[in-house]
């Protein structure tokens, strides 16, 4: 009993695993866009409905009508055979032929001493051929030959009598429901019209969502999108309005922070200027040398903090040539006796805020130049992403401290720091600039034994 329960649980577990695998495969095959998924939501029910209707129509209506028409024609042919057999031999049957033509709408002829042609191969799919053959077998019980494909407007039936062959020509419409294509044409045509209307409607509904996504993406990169306005359905309008209000609140907060920091910077710089003036008036006093160095440190820390707080958000987006920037960094490394190489895959020009992005790459390159002897830079400009990798052979940063170094004012006692003054804002400023472009800066281990810094932003 226990083994049976175990086997059943294993089967259920295997079934559920198979269903999950099939579900994952199906999700990978389905489109990911909202527009394509919405079209599938409309198209799949229409296709299924048409398939069911067509199957029911073909199975019930079309086959039933063809069955009745073939039965009626076969009954008429059987009646003509009975009339011919009731007449004595060599008697004129012209009246029977005339009645068949005028009353039954059948063209009848008799071939004396004729024989049936050899059987023709049955068509792959012909409901008329199958039903008409069944009816002749049931009602007439004589050898026969039929041609349902020769003339598209007529159906030929040949019946072998005693010493002659009866040839009957009937219109296809008498034996077959030939207007089926009209129903299918109307059904498919109406569906196409509905699909076109649905596509036009969906495009009108999806366009505001795409505009909202584009505006949010541009705002995330620090770009302006003044032409955005909520459109579409009420829910989309509410989402667009909420985005505009959120953007305005963030912009007001940034403006207030910048204004406050500008005022603080002005006041502090005024005080520092007074300190410098008083120290200059005091002359070369060895006792005041430490105070002068503290004033310079305060000036540097203030400027670093201001740069971190502003984040270069006021700069507009422009074009930056990576090769020109890397050439400058390469010259700077050579002047300090260090080695730097770079390679670029893809387009050389990128759309960024030039000054801010230059500062980001310069800080990373200067940091490597300060603590390492060699630096390799690889830039890959793809369709969606720009990835720039810095690999050096320096001491690196411990793995447990790689998240903390991005915090403002965090300093490493033994390793490295981006700011020459040691304010602890270097990596924080670098990540802030990268995130203002919609990307990020991450740290890892370099194949050269030092630190790997990866800058990844949308292209």
Briefly summarize what is shown.
This protein has 459 residues and is α+β, with helices and mostly antiparallel strands.
Helix-strand sequence: HHHEHEEEHHHHEHEEHEEHEE
Gyration radius over CA: 44 Å
Rounded mean pLDDT is: 80
Question: Helix count?
Answer: 11
Low-confidence stretches: 414-421
User: How many beta-strand runs?
Assistant: 11
Give the helix level as a range of percent: 55-70%
- Beta fraction of the residues? 15-25%
Could you give a short account of the major beta sheet? 5 strands, mixed
Descriptive account of the structure:
With 459 residues, this protein is of the alpha+beta class. It is built from 11 helices and 11 strands. It has helices at residues 2-29, 34-86, 94-102, 127-139, 172-175, 180-220, 234-282, 289-310, 322-335, 354-371, 426-436, and strands at residues 106-112, 144-147, 154-160, 164-171, 318-321, 339-346, 349-352, 374-381, 385-392, 440-445, 451-458. The strands form 3 sheets. The chain has a 5-stranded mixed sheet with strand order 6-8-9-11-10, with helices on one face. Helix 7 (234-282) runs antiparallel to helix 8 (289-310) and helix 10 (354-371) runs antiparallel to helix 11 (426-436). Residues 414-421 have low confidence and may be disordered.
